[in-house]
Amino acid sequence: MDFTTEIDQRRRDIAARLPELKANALLVSSPANIRYLSGYTGSNGLILLLSSETHFFTDPRYEIAARRNIAGQVHIVKGPLNASVIQVIKRKRLKKIAFESAWTQFEAYQRLKEALPLGASLVPAGRIIEERRMLKSPAEIDIIRRSVNLNSEAYARVLKRIRPGVRELEVAAEIEFQMKMLGAEKPSFETIVAAGPRSALPHSHPTSHQIGAHELLLIDMGASLEGYASDMTRVIHLDQPPKRIRGMYRAVLEAQLAGVAAVREGVTAGKVDSATRNVLKKYQMDKAFVHSTGHGLGLEIHEPPRLGKKDKTRLQAGMAITIEPGVYMEGLGGIRIEDTVLVTENGCEVLTPTSKEFIHL
C-alpha cells in the first residue's frame, strides 16, 4: 500500500466515526493530524472532513504544492481560513461540526462558534484521530525504524568527539548537525545534553557548561525523518565512574530491561510502568524516578499511549513506544536509559540498535 492510498483509508476510517460523534463533519486543526490525513507539511492549513468528501484549506503560499499533492477539494484562501470553512458549512448546510477539543484554543473556538450559521453547533471530537494514530502501518513502522537507525548513527559519530572541556551546547549542535547530514529534517525535540549534577534535571537544556574530566553525561536525542520521530537516551561517564554511579546505572538498566520484557499485546501501559518501578523499589530508588516509563511516538514525539502509573490503555501490536526509566539524585546526577520499542503480538522488538553498556570515555 502506498502512502496516497493509506491516507485515503485514514480519512475513510475517521469519516466513518462521524455518526458516533453525532456530527456531519470534523474540522481538523492539529498540524500532526492534518499531515496524517493529507500529507500536508505546511504551517497554515485546515481540513473539513465530511462522510464522503474532504475540503482542504490553505493560503496562496502553499497553492502549488496543495493542488499537486492533496486529494479532495482544495480551497486557497486569502485571509483567515475559518471564513472559507464557514462558507462550506453554510453551502453544505452542516448542522453539527465536530472539532478537536484537545487542540483548539479557546479564542479560536469562540470565533468559530460566533461565525456559525443559525442552527449549527460545535461538538467536541476528543482524540479520535490520535487513537487511530497509535497503531502504525507497515509504511509508518519502516520510517520510524529508519529514523531510529539514523538517530543511533548520529550518536555514534558524536561519541567519538566527546572529550573534557567540550561545552554541552557544542555536543548538542554536533548531534543535530550529524542528524541532518544523515538525512533528518530536524531533531524531533530539543536535544538534551546534561553533564555532572545537571544530569539530575530530567529535561535539562544544554548550556555553555564545559564537560569535566570526571563527569557523568546524559544525552537524550531524537531525529525527525519524513515527519516521524525517534527517541533515545544514553548516559556515559568521562573516566571511571564512582561506585554509587555504577550502582545507579545497574539499577536503571535492570529496570529498563524489565520494562521491555513486560511489553506485549494486551498488557496495560500501567503494568509496564509497574515493572520498571518495582525494580527501582528493590534498590530503594523508586522515589527518585519522577516521570512515566514512556510514551508513544510517531508524527509527534509524545503521542498516546502514556506508560504511566495505573494507565489502563492496553498495548496493541503496531504501537511504537519508548521505555525510559530514570533515577535522579540532586547534587550527584541522573541516569536514564531509553529505547524506541515496537509492540508485537508476542512481545516487542527493540528498534534502537545502540548498546546499553555503560561507556567510560
Topology:
Elements: H1 3-15, H2 18-21, E1 25-28, H3 31-38, E2 45-50, E3 54-58, H4 63-69, E4 73-76, H5 81-92, E5 96-99, H6 106-115, E6 121-124, H7 128-133, H8 138-159, H9 168-181, E7 186-187, E8 192-195, E9 216-221, E10 223-225, E11 228-229, E12 232-237, H10 243-262, H11 269-282, E13 294-296, E14 303-307, E15 320-323, E16 326-329, E17 333-336, E18 339-344, E19 347-350, E20 359-360
Parallel strand pairs: 1-5, 3-4, 5-6, 12-20
Antiparallel strand pairs: 1-2, 2-3, 7-10, 8-9, 9-12, 10-11, 13-14, 15-18, 16-17, 18-19
Helix pairs in contact: 8-9, 10-11
Describe the overall structure.
36% of the residues lie in helices and 23% in strands. The strands form six sheets. The chain has a six-stranded mixed beta sheet with strand order 4-3-2-1-5-6, sandwiched between helices. The protein folds into two domains: 3-132, Creatine Amidinohydrolase, Chain A, domain 1 (3-Layer(aba) Sandwich), CATH 3.40.350.10; 138-360, Creatinase/methionine aminopeptidase superfamily (Creatine Amidinohydrolase). The mean pLDDT is 96. It has helices at residues 3-15, 18-21, 31-38, 63-69, 81-92, 106-115, 128-133, 138-159, 168-181, 243-262, 269-282, and strands at 25-28, 45-50, 54-58, 73-76, 96-99, 121-124, 186-187, 192-195, 216-221, 223-225, 228-229, 232-237, 294-296, 303-307, 320-323, 326-329, 333-336, 339-344, 347-350, 359-360. With 361 residues, the chain is an alpha+beta fold.
